[in-house]
Amino acid sequence: MTSASQDLNLNHEPGHIKHDGHNLTGFIIFLCSESIIFLAFFSGFALLKLTSPEWLPEGVEGLETKLPLINTIVLVSSSFVAYFAERYLHKENLWGFRALWLLTMAMGTYFVYGQYVEWSELPFSLSNGVFGGTFYLLTGFHGLHVITGILLMALMLFRSFRPNNYAKGDMGVTSVSLFWHFVDVIWIILYILIYVWQRHT
Amino acid sequence: MTTTKYDPRVLKAPHPVPGAPDNWKRFFTFNTDAKVIGIQYMGLSLFFLLVGGLLAMVMRGELITPPSDLVDPTVYNGLYTMHGTVMLFLFLFPILNGFNNLLIPTMIGAPDMAFPKVNAAAFWLVPVFSVVLLSSFFVPGGPASAGWWSYPPVSIQNPLGHFLNGEFLWILAVALSGISSILGALNFVTTIIRMRAPGMGFFRMPVFVWTAWAAQTLQLVGLPALTGGAIMLLFDLSFGTSFFRPEGGGDPVLYQHFFWFYSHPAVYVMVLPVFGIFSELITVYSRKPLFGYKFVAIASFIITFLGLIVWVHHMFYSGTPQWMRNIFIVTTMLIAVPTGVKVFAWLGTLWGGKIRLTTPMLFVLGGVVNFILGGVTGIMLGTAPIDIHVGNTYFVVAHFHYIIFNTIGFGIFAGIYHWFPKFTGRMYYEGLGKIHFVLTFIGATLNWLPMHWAGLYGMPRRVASYDPEFAIWNVIASIGAFMLGVASIPFILNIVSSWARGAKASANPWNAIGLEWLLPSPPPAENFEDDVPTVISEPYGYGLGKPLVKDEEYYIRRSMEA
Ligand code: HEM
Ligand SMILES: [Cu+2]
Questions:
Q1: What is the rounded average pLDDT of the residues B302-307?
Q2: CA of A173 relative to ligand 1 center, distance in Å
Q3: What is the number of helices (H) and of strands (E) in chain B?
Q4: Which value does ipTM take for this structure?
Q5: By CB atoms within 10 Å of each CB, which of A97, A187, B103, B500 scores lowest?
Q6: Residue B232 is nearest to which of A7, A132, A137, comparing CB atoms?
Q7: Using CA atoms, how far apart are residues B517 and B539, in angstroms rounded to an integer?
Q8: Atom of ligand 1 nearest to the CA of B443
Q9: Among A28-32, B381-385, B458-462, which stretch is predicted with the lowest mean pLDDT?
Q10: Is pLDDT at B558 greater than 50 in this prediction?
């Protein structure tokens, strides 16, 4: 079997079976599709905000922005850390990769913690009209992605301790850090929609 | 370095995937071979065609007389909701994924799908969500009954107050089906982009692969929107949010946007592969190259694009402002152009061809004729004035069944017969096939043609009882429906008995051109294994004497020897 599949790779013109590339192609397509779910939520948010007769629940003035801002800064910088972790991996510096990767995970965890603190201090709940619903839906769905990202990173970290797995970079690490950047970009849009936009209404 | 060497191993009987039994039992395992998964999809979805058909029979039994005497109106609501849902999510989508699994790898010369395990997981989600959906018959309050579109506010009322209710299970099932379809779509698109045989550029791919690609792209763009909408609906129903509740500041029409942004394209997800099947079969059975191959291929993606920007034509009577209606009337009309390209390509191919009226070809011709009628009524409905007049009447029911059964259903039957020898290794019985076709054609016409008039004269849909003036149309329709039920008998008989004892099929019983016909019937587990041919020309070189693959001798050898 091995000899057959080696033949497969050697004997064919480029454009044929490139097994390595599948995962990344598939993953990118997956992310495109995921971004449409977010797009649906974002457009729903915008539409409801623009047309809804009652937006903020009674007694709520607006959202506190300081904590979310710190959170945003942490999350956005973690994307850069992840990028450098990946660079280390390509240079076959495994310990450098592990250290920065762990730092990314820590920053992600801090973000989730900050989100938790913010949620527990809010004066409204999921069932407080459209505002409550959209707020928790958007931030919650995003938070779920952050948690998924951290778990995936833990998996990659764990795998890096198994011999030979990370000789010259790895498709898994590339995909996970792509996912992390994606989650980051989504957060920026979300931050603008939820926290920045409210200031001007 | 492409001379493909002759490898006698490939022509041997199919070898089992390691660990899987090489008999019928493998269809009941978590098997990662795309061809096994394809047949799993086919079998399961045909079973659900029967289930959905039975629900329809009960509906037609109710409608054979004007008063509501067989079932009461609430039960009737549950019946049409479940009928529509079963037919779409458990019959049509799964069966098309069956075709994709069988045909995409074999047609492009790939050993399997890009992600075989994901593929198997996507399949096994189907039985899981079918159980979720059908178990709703046994929860208090009965199955979901807000229609397969599940519009709020009806769908989020939950009058009995149980957390576990029919609507809850419905939304859950639809969400699971969405996950399964997205996983499938990812896999098909990646496979088509990355795993084509050497020399098979995009413009050398068979039209079926083009249409499947376009359709799966639509799934990837549209389904997430529906999934987003379904999540919000679930929250409204069960967790007290008010996205779609006007009392809480929400907007029920927002849901309609999410729903139709997916569900209009969904009709192209279903019809595009059938266009592909039509194109494949018409060339084979009239022995001519496909007229305008490149246009037909590209038209698939134009349909995909236009399909994504017409959804509001389902909402003309949901308070849509006139300027918006006008935009969507125009985009809807535009779809007629690429679609027309396809129809003319088929007619142009048939023109002067040597037509063989086998069972698959009969289904194709029947399907094309019905499609023309269904297309005309579709364009009528796409104009707001007519839609506002006949929307919510049986005219709509007639229109979409002309597309969804008389076109898509026919194409599916055609495809099943045509590729049956390839994937089972046996020939079906032509006589039984023709009986199936005749019964289906007459039954379907009796069933849905009269509904056009019933609708034009004002018979509303989704009702268990109606004004006696419509009785005659309904009696005819019910007779047609029962005839369709009878038609399933020769079909099932044919499939079962030919699979068990039919004549052995050669590699290329139809004398067709295409990589799949170079494989033995049934193809071995990894298709060409390491003996992948190099493609050197467009598909469908019928009568042109152009070889499809580089090594002509190889071609002849494979088609003779197997
Ligand atoms: C086998 C014969 C069939 C019969 C007799 C039949 C009959 C019906 C009837 C009476 C309705 C309800 C219309 C209403 O009250 O508004 C309906 C709805 C529907 N059917 Fe069928 N049908 C059949 C096959 C199919 C097939 C094969 C499909 C899909 C592949 C399908 C998809 C639908 C859908 C999506 C609806 C919409 C549900 C709704 O309007 O509530 N049907 N059908
Ligand atoms: Cu539509």
A1: 94
A2: 48
A3: 16, 0
A4: 0.86
A5: B500
A6: A137
A7: 12
A8: 2
A9: B381-385
A10: yes
Share of chain B above pLDDT 70, in %: 94
Dihedral angle, C-alpha A139, A141, A144, A146, nearest 10 °: -60
Amino acid, res. B97:
N
Exposure on the CB side of residue A73, measured as CA atoms within 13 A? 5
The 3-class SS string of chain A reads CHHHHHHHHHHCCCCCCCHHHHHHHHHHHHHHHHHHHHHHHHHHHHHHHHHCCCCCCCCCCCCCCHHHHHHHHHHHHHHHHHHHHHHHHHCCCHHHHHHHHHHHHHHHHHHHHHHHHHHHHCCCCCCCHHHHHHHHHHHHHHHHHHHHHHHHHHHHHHHCCCCCCCECECHHHHHHHHHHHHHHHHHHHHHHHHHHHHHCC
Read off the pLDDT of residues B27-67 as tens digits, 9 standing for 90 and up. Answer: 888 888 999 999 999 999 999 999 999 999 999 999 999 99
Determine the Cα–Cα distance for residues A180 and B379; give it in Å rounded to an integer. 45
Peptide bond preceding B116 in cis form (omega within 30 of 0)? no
Tell me the per-residue pLDDT of B405-424, one tens digit each, with 9 for 90 and over: 999 999 999 999 999 999 99
Torsion B454-B455-B460-B464 (CA) sign: positive
Question: Which positions in chain A have a beta carbon within 8 angstroms of at least one beta carbon in chain B?
Answer: 4-5, 7-8, 11-13, 15-18, 21-22, 25-26, 29-30, 32-34, 36-37, 39-41, 44, 47-48, 51-55, 126-127, 129-134, 137, 141
